[in-house]
């Protein structure tokens, strides 16, 4: 009997582990190839069966929502951790932009999902994360008083449009993201991802 490749089947006890492996695999695949790769490629990359993929994520939208949930939890924790820091806005928005760069394939899924994605709830949650840091930065004189949450959401849409279409001669998504922020006058520096 041929040896089974991939991770051993641990049954229901491995559900959380399988889910985490699927999200990590999807992040890698979509970062390399975009969101139009066959859905079952994610299961292969994660080393789990297709049944496990579909139990956790019946479709691409469910998978994108899981990724965004992880991203939101990270942003919310960062905002809490640095709430008293005048640079909180810069830290949170820089991380948000990094997430946009790294999760571009998932944003593409949402952009093509139309009404199947709870966009209003997502925008509301994003506004909630950014409001405190924005207010603090404005009180400290680090951001112009006229900047609003709606402006920030527009900047994010501009960022997505730029990243998804690119420009001739670009030097990569991080450079493009930084150019967008510089052009709109937002004093946020986007770091390159950590190596590895």
Automatic annotation (TrEMBL):
<dbReference type="InterPro" id="IPR001647">
    <property type="entry name" value="HTH_TetR"/>
</dbReference>
<keyword id="KW-0804">Transcription</keyword>
<keyword id="KW-0805">Transcription regulation</keyword>
<keyword id="KW-0238">DNA-binding</keyword>
<feature type="domain" description="HTH tetR-type">
    <location>
        <begin position="16"/>
        <end position="75"/>
    </location>
</feature>
<dbReference type="InterPro" id="IPR050109">
    <property type="entry name" value="HTH-type_TetR-like_transc_reg"/>
</dbReference>
<feature type="DNA-binding region" description="H-T-H motif">
    <location>
        <begin position="38"/>
        <end position="57"/>
    </location>
</feature>
<dbReference type="Pfam" id="PF00440">
    <property type="entry name" value="TetR_N"/>
</dbReference>
<protein>
    <submittedName>
        <fullName>TetR/AcrR family transcriptional regulator</fullName>
    </submittedName>
</protein>
<dbReference type="InterPro" id="IPR009057">
    <property type="entry name" value="Homeodomain-like_sf"/>
</dbReference>
